[in-house]
Amino acid sequence: MTGRAAASTRVHKPFLAVLGVLVLVTAWHLAGLFLFTCGFLLQRVELHDRAPPCERPPHPSWTMPTPPRGAAKGESAALDVWDELLREKGECTLPPRYARAVVWIIDALRYDFVAEALNSSTTPNVYMHNLLRKPAELHKQEHGSSILAHFVAHPPTTTLQRLKGLTTGSLPTFIEAGANFGGAGRVLEDTWIGQVRAQTGRDRMVFVGDDTWQMVFADLFDESYPFSSFNVEDLDTVDAGVEHHMRAVMDDGHYSLLIGHSLGVDHVGHRFGPAHARMPPKLEQMDGIVRDLLERLPQDTLFVLLGDHGMDANGDHGGDSELEIGSALWMYAKRPFDPVAKKGMQPLTLLPDVRALLAQPTPTPAYQPFSMLPVAEYAEGHRSLPQIDLVPTLSLLLGVPVPFNSLGTVIPEAFASAQQPLGHKDARLLRALRINARQVRTYLDAYAAQSRDLAPFAAELRDLWRQALQADATWAEMPSVDTARAAATNYMVFTRAALDRAQSVWAQFDHARIGLGAAILGLTVLVTWMLWRRTAQEASGAVARRVGRAAAYGSLAGTLVGVFIGILTHLSVAEALLAGAALGSLFAAILALQAPCQVAPGTPPRATSRVSTWLAVIFMSIHAMLFASNSFTMWEDRITLALLAVLLLGRAGLGLGAPLVRWQYRIPVISISALLLVRLAAMSRVCREEQAPYCTPTFYARRVSTEFADNPAYALSGPATNSPYTMVATYVVAFVMADVLRRLLRTSRAHLGSAATILPWIVRPAMLGAAGFWLADWVHGLERWDESTRTLFLHIKMAVARTVLGLLVVGAVYWCYAPLCLSVLREPAPETGRSRVMILGFGNALGSAFLLGGSLGFVLLFLLAQPMGQLALTACFLATVLLAELGDHERDARMLAAAKRVEAQVETPTSRPVPTLLETTCLVLVGFVAFFGTGHQATFTAIQWRVAFVGFTQVTYPWSPLFVVLNAFGPMIALPVWGAVLLALWNVAPHRVTKESLSPLPMRVPSDALHLLLGVLWYLSWLALAAAGWAYYFRRHLMLFKIWVPRFMTAALGLVVADVLALVAVVASLLLAYRIHRAFGSTFV
Predict the structure, then answer these.
(1) What is the set of domains in the chain, with CATH numbers?
(2) pLDDT, tens only, 419-435
(3) Distance between CA 446 and CA 25 in Å, rounded?
(4) Are 719 and 703 in contact (CB under 8 A)?
(5) What phi, psi does 188 have (nearest 5°)?
(6) pTM (2 decimals)?
């Protein structure tokens, strides 16, 4: 091996060792998170049974079998016989009231968009109320043919989950929310659509609209016209296609089922928010389509208009706030729901039988207030029902069996009759409830055979069922209005209780997977801590060899243990082997790390600060313990800011005791400057629903109108549009940022060389372009433009975004091959008369170059952040650079103080101090401030989906999901990971070859980078473990899926992103090390 090759080996081997250690830690994280997530976020048990076809065709008049003696008195044996008798001779559906159906889903159609908004202090609102008028008009005019209700969606309110609920009648599961964006999620359960398809003599079934249906119901339709569902920039294409095809099918007349799913309202909400000038024309367009379709509606056809979910004040959905779950339902037909109805009847909800049923106290309220409509149609409130109630209702109205897994209850208004009320022998309402309750009972029995989820409620549900049977037997023996109402009421109480109890255990927990995953996460936290302590003294290569060898042997032994794990548990072979290998390698690593450190003879120990270490551990633990309380978790944004402020103020105070006067000024000034920057960043925020009314959002434009001043739902937020004043500020920041960074580099004279090219010619124009993209986006959304002008602005903003991305690619390539931030200064030496050569920037050659590379990544995040987030991100980026400067000053002060103590023979000599865990803690907390300041919270509704279209007009893989991930986790993770490596490189001068030293002492840059990155990963893995543990502890808490599960998912995804970005940062530092080696001959260890 030549000398050059050997020296090159001494460059890349230490960095490869760092990569090896980080890959091993990443593997442990992935194994623990995978097993825990599989155990904690399981789907409920899905039954793939189908409701069998009816053995006898339904008949308008059905004769009740005679109950056995004693059934009406509640005798157990008689009730068992009566139960079996009704099962054998009972009806499986009703005669079809309608021959076909037209179902139109308007995505995100909130209840107040359809219901009449009566005059009050806050309504009507010009942006959204009384614009889609036709349903409310017909509801007032044609009482017997219309049902209008507040349609409550079960969270999570993502489209896929809602489609499953609306077609199967089953409850959603949390883990399926991710399938809404990943291509999975085909429905395998029984659906009312499948029951219609199974009918003999049916006509064609047609779907048009959101292509999610194509994924979920691939084989159920004879004709499908899908449209892409993710292009939120396009407000009209899907709606135009739905309108065209629905008109064509209805004009043709040959169909049994026609389903349309429009997206324009949802896209307006995501793009601008509901209270925006683009919403009124969209709702008026929907109103026009409704009127047009009703003109084409045949007499024998049921028309159903509904929303799959609502939207919050920013146009988002996914959670369970009032506005997100409050969608609308309107059922209408030119033929009344009651086959024997007469004209002039009263509203269906006011029929005596309906009022008697709705007056019964059940876990599902029949009336609810709705904050957007303070004045309700009825004295009790707005008529309200769960979305899954549509499933048995539609099934029986169309004359097909209710889907097997449905937990819905028939809507009483659809089957009540003024001419044939309860007590009449052919009363459809009691017949419908009896069929409905029988189907639910069958499902519960089948479910109990597969899972013990509902075992705690089995006795209660059995008693309710037998009470219903007894009441039905009483009605059969003594027919009257009272006995019929008692039977109907008991059947409804049973179905509502079944829904409530099932909902309380809608996700099952696999304790074996949870325990193994938590154990792996916990041991990884311990091993990461041990690695962090060891890398303070031992070189990265020695650590990697020790841990890598032990982990390899341990994983081999662990796979044998995994075989026994698979035998003792129900885990799959792959899961058992994964758990065994992970646990074996972790235990082996723990044993290996007990050995003494391998340090070269004569090497002085590196100074460490135990006080700062334990202080950092205390602050990390405080952060992790927030998850023990839902209130603390909800206010994490304020608490993390307070923790960071305390640390920075403490560091400022300690700086006053530095050994040199200039440090006594500079350390406090830098600390306070960083604190001011993060305080400015924290002024940008979005508010969680639970923070009302103590949080005022500032991320989006403030609403000038006072129409919602008294409305608690809208008091929290303005429309989801950016403020033009903020955009002006982003332009100012974009222009001066390059100069600010050069000023920061000037203190180490590293502002020349590559810095003089990248900062003014790459960073500045790219940041100006990023600010310009969001300005063009805002102008594009203004209502004043015609379609051609709006298209022009769309092309402009796409071109700007792509130009910025192209500039960043050019900058990255230039950074990889450009010279360092150095310049040569020649000046005469008076004493010798010869020229003296000075290399400016030499003392910060590594840190300055790494700062330039990080600035390119910062500009990418700047492009993906919305304007207010751009300002917060910039402040946090500058704070991170200041923390690197602060840490360097603090280490210099400690080293000088230690040198003085050595001179006084108080202690033994030590080398340059190691960056402390307290410095790492501050970096991570800055990342959290950036996360919240860029408009995020640990909630689904805070995800900024619109950034998926930066530079693209439609979803483009892999860039669109990558941009969403970088927007969400880039500020929180990229800043501390990049900042950790920057701490290791900042103001570290290369060890160069000289005449006196042909083999300079190797630099500890890789080992220090590994040490600091392990500190970041230890903090984040500690948070992930705490979030997982408290989520499991509160697994039966009412707020589990609203508070703890989203926070666990945020911690888990953040940890994985940190692992990946740590690897990227190490590779970048390796490229930089090669350049340092070529310039100065430096080697690394």
Answers:
(1) 96-419 (3.40.720.10)
(2) 899 988 889 999 999 99
(3) 44
(4) yes
(5) -110, -5
(6) 0.82
